[in-house]
């Protein structure tokens, strides 16, 4: 005759089920409710109602939808404030509004998985760096040894970081 599930018969079964669904380690559940760890594992595998698991997944989807809705609301508010600032020719505020709207768009794109979390920027090819490099080279013309030392250091840096 099969043994009765000690978790199913436990007076706090609903709390145990919730702890399992929440991902609490079986050992912690066993200690908290005075049941065996293997009993918790077997219960989770064989007796935990699938609807409870589905309800937990649905709650996570609802939380994600709520976050997405709030991000969209922030974007709409930033765009609205940007338009107001533009109408009033308040260009400083308008530029800040553009930055905020861009940040909201970036957040939404990340939440949708449309953007990678990190973007690599190759500053060695940026126009600003090229200009700065030329200014340094011109300033060092009267000092050929310093200029050559800097040139070598920059070449080593580029080789190390692009190879």
Helix and strand topology:
Blueprint: H1 13-21, H2 26-33, H3 37-46, H4 50-87, H5 91-111, H6 127-139, H7 144-162
Helix pairs in contact: 2-3, 4-5
Protein described:
- It is built from seven helices and no strands.
- It is mostly helical and 163 residues long.
- It folds into three domains: 13-48; 61-111; 123-162, no CATH class.
- The chain is elongated and about 95 Å long.
- The protein starts with 12 loop residues before the first helix and ends with a helix.
Q: Name the average pLDDT.
A: 80
The number of strands is 0
Any idea what the radius of gyration is?
30 Å
Low-confidence stretches: none
Number of helices: 7
- General shape: elongated
How would you describe this structure in keywords?
163 residues, mainly alpha, 7 helices, 72% helix
What does this entry show, briefly?
With 163 residues, this protein is an all-alpha fold. Helix content is 72%, strand content 0%.
């Amino acid at each position: 005759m099969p043994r009765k599930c000690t978790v199913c018969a436990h007076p706090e079964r609903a709390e145990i089920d919730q702890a399992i669904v929440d991902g609490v380690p079986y050992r912690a559940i066993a200690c908290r409710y005075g049941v065996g760890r293997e009993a918790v594992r077997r219960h989770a595998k064989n007796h935990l109602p699938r609807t409870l698991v589905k309800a937990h997944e649905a709650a996570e989807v609802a939380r994600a939808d709520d976050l997405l809705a709030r991000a969209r609301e922030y974007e709409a508010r930033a765009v609205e404030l940007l338009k107001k600032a533009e109408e009033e020719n308040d260009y400083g505020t308008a530029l800040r509004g553009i930055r905020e709207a861009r940040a909201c768009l970036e957040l939404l794109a990340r939440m949708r998985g449309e953007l990678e979390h990190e973007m690599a920027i190759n500053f060695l090819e940026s126009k600003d760096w090229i200009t700065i490099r030329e200014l340094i080279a011109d300033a060092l013309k009267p000092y050929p040894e310093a200029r050559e030392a800097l040139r070598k250091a920059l070449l080593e840096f580029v080789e190390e970081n692009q190879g």
